[in-house]
Amino acid sequence: MTVEERPIEILLVEDNRADADLLTEVMKEAKVVNRMSVVTDGVEAMSYLRRRGRYSKAVRPDLILLDLKLPKKDGREVLAEIKKDPELRRIPVIVLTTSRAETDVVKSYYLHANCYISKPVDLDRYIEVVKGIEDFWLSIARLPTARP
Amino acid sequence: VESRRLDQTELLNFILESTDEGIVAIDPEGRILMSNPASERILGFRPFDFPVRLWGERFQFFRQDGTACPVEELPLAKGLQGQVVKEFRLRMVHPERPQGVWLSVSSRPMKDEEGRIVAAVTSFREISEQIRSELERREYRVILEGVTEAITVQDPTGRLVFANDAAARICGFDSPEELIGAPPGEVLGRFEITTESGDPYPPERLPGQRALGGEDRPSSTVRWRTRPDGPWRWSRVSAAPVRDGEGKILFAVNFWHETTTERISEQALRESEERFRATFEQAVVGFAQVGTDGRFLRVNRKLSEMLGYSEEELSSRTFGELTFPADRDRDLGVFRRMLAGEQETYTTEKRYIRRNGEVIWAHLMTRLIRDDGGAPRYFASVIQDITERKRAEQALGQRTEQLARSNEELEQYATVASHDLQEPLRAVSGYAQLLQRRYAGHLDADADRFIGYIVEGVQRMWNLINDLLAYSRAGRGESFSAVSLDLVLDRVLKNLSASIQESQTVVSREPLPVVLGDEGQMVQLLQNLVGNAIRFRRGPGPKIQVSATPSNGRWVVSVKDDGIGIDPAFFDRLFVLFQRLHSKEEYPGTGIGLAMSKKIVERHGGKIWLESDPGQGSTFYFSLPDAKGVER
């Protein structure tokens, strides 16, 4: 098996444009090279993943960063749908949220989230976290590349 | 005087024919020798038609005691046997006189010179009337003697001609005969008689005298006693005149009916009634007697005031009509159950509608009163106006509810507000920090300073939001369990170890109790207090003492320091959220610590307070329930 030389594809599901941009900037600061697509609600996220409508040409992401608070279809539902779908469930999902509520954490893991991260307020810390994600999920972990 | 000598036979015949006495003579064979017209009149038949041997078939004879008298024992027969019979009473019944004829019969034998009985002569007269009146007199006498009422009969001169046993007894004689024999003045003199109101009673006005004077049925109630000082007694005296055929008054009959017992019990009843009425009327609670039909029979003034109806108005209304509709069915149900004997008393709080439409609350206690036979007579009810109390209770309930609601709203508000504030703040914070990171030194000095303020302000806001969130959560928290404050303090000192070391704080501790509470909050509480004690020190090496003493089944925990102290003027502000006594530069912090501590202690049913000398130090106390009886 050969490692395909291509940028890492990340799908960010986040309704807040400022938050999404901030993450992009933080990634730049963290020197993480990738391609990140952003969708702003749960319905869009599922369309993207299933390549429906205007997302027919969408590339299947290597990693999904999912906010829990989303319009139309919230993060928990999106997570549940992904993990029920045999084609999608192998994609690691990182729940990235401002919530620190214990119930959200438990519920997310219960729905097979691969990781639960609450967004730090401090920028330096945020950068560290993103670096950590990159290190673990995009460098250390071997992700399945062959697509069935 | 020369007169013709009368013919003896002629004279005898004349006498026999003119006498009213029946006379019959028979010979020893029972043949009728002679009979006069009176005998025919009395007997109702001609004696010649019936020889004595036929009498037994034709007539029946009875003695005075009611037994049958055979013919051979009749006075006539006895005469033939040589006996003399005088005034023998017998009753003869025969077809012409079926009700019987009472006869008084005398008989004697007639003998010849040799002494042989040749005939029997019997004379008789009818005494039916006499017998009847004798019988009646005897009957009445029995009745008059038997009655408890004293009865006397006076003749027109006032002299007693009859008295019964009761009369003799009242007048103090052994027998009616003695009473009748006594001089009238003496009898009357034995008594003192007054009217009911106590005035002397004039003897001529006594009913007997009035009856003799022609009044038909005079009657009067008198009070009397035997002289000189017998107990006062009461009698109802009445009299009636007895007249002859021409209407002339022959006698007056007096009846003395003694009413002393009734009088005394009536008076006792009246007195008890009066006492009851006084209580009933003057009571400060409402009283009512309610009939078995639900109607108000009797109410007191207080109840009439309470309901706003006069007593008359209430007497035509039922309690059901005045009961608030929502309470009516329940009350009527109980009313029926009580009448059915399923329940004797009923106590409740209910509403009545006053005459002016106002609704009042009342405490009702009612009992069913029964007669001696157990039949329901009426309900005795005590009704107390509790409207004020109810209003206060309701107001209190409403206020408590409002308070709980507004507390809940406040907590929700704090949670929501702090959550929603986080989103935009995150953006401000993130980009401000990004600006600082990327452009610090590339813009001018002012820009760097401004960005610095933004970052700092955002950080402070962040802390406030987090504190607010924590504060709003403090009202909920975990359920209580037994918590060892010794272990809690261990954790607190460990958490604070860095600042303890840095400030060279000396913590002395006494054994702490096990309390009932939320362990996480206990850590937060002690950490706030110990943390404050370190923070507000006067210099390096502060001394802090943590101890606990039992007090009224509770524990009072104290945290004593030798720090800067607090002016008592600020004690109140100390526990208010985000109130600070010092600038952030002097002593950092949002000002949540003590507000949070107060909320935690109050959630645990305790109190928090302090003593302090500015410049000497402060002692914070909090009380908590003991964990005794809690299963561990």
Average of the residue pLDDT scores of chain A: 81
Please work out how many helical segments of chain B DSSP would assign: 21
Q: How many strand elements of chain A?
A: 5
Q: In DSSP terms, counting alpha (H) and pi (I) runs of 4 or more, how many helices of chain A? A: 5
* Radius of gyration of chain B using CA atoms only: 60 Å
Strand order of the largest sheet of chain B: 2-1-6-5-4-3
Mean pLDDT of chain B: 85
Q: Structural class of the secondary elements of chain A?
A: alpha/beta
What is the overall silhouette of chain B? rod-shaped
Task: Kindly describe this structure.
- The complex is a heterodimer of chains A (148) and B (632).
- Chain A has 148 residues and is α/β, with parallel strands linked by helices.
- In chain A, 39% of the residues lie in helices and 16% in strands.
- Chain A is built from 5 helices and 5 strands; from the N terminus they run E-H-E-H-E-H-E-H-E-H.
- In chain A, strands 2-1-3-4-5 form a 5-stranded parallel beta sheet, with helices on both faces.
- In chain A, strand 4 (93-97), helix 4 and strand 5 (115-118) form a beta-alpha-beta unit.
- The radius of gyration of chain A is 15 Å and the shape is globular.
- With 632 residues, chain B is an alpha+beta fold.
- Helices cover 41% and strands 28% of the residues of chain B.
- Chain B contains 21 helices and 24 strands.
- Chain B is rod-shaped, with a radius of gyration of 60 Å.
- In chain B, 24% of the residues are buried.
- Chain A binds chain B through residues 16, 18-19, 22, 25-26, 29, 98, 119, 121-124, 126, and chain B through 422-423, 426-427, 429-431, 433-434, 437, 462.
SSE diagram, text form:
The complex is a heterodimer of chains A (148) and B (632).
Chain A: E1 9-13, H1 17-29, E2 35-39, H2 42-49, E3 63-66, H3 75-84, E4 93-97, H4 102-110, E5 115-118, H5 123-140
Parallel strand pairs in A: 1-2, 1-3, 3-4, 4-5
Helix pairs in contact in A: 1-5, 2-3
Chain B: H1 8-18, E1 22-26, E2 32-35, H2 37-43, H3 52-58, E3 60-63, H4 75-80, E4 85-94, E5 97-111, E6 117-126, H5 128-146, E7 150-154, E8 160-163, H6 165-170, H7 176-181, H8 184-189, E9 191-194, H9 207-212, E10 219-226, E11 233-243, E12 249-258, H10 260-282, E13 286-291, E14 296-299, H11 301-307, H12 311-315, H13 319-322, H14 325-339, E15 345-353, E16 359-370, E17 376-385, H15 387-439, H16 445-474, E18 481-484, H17 485-495, H18 497-503, E19 506-509, E20 514-517, H19 519-535, E21 543-551, E22 554-561, H20 571-574, H21 593-603, E23 608-613, E24 617-625
Parallel strand pairs in B: 19-21
Antiparallel strand pairs in B: 1-2, 1-6, 3-4, 4-5, 5-6, 7-8, 7-12, 9-10, 10-11, 11-12, 13-14, 13-17, 15-16, 16-17, 18-20, 21-22, 22-24, 23-24
Helix pairs in contact in B: 15-16, 17-19, 19-21
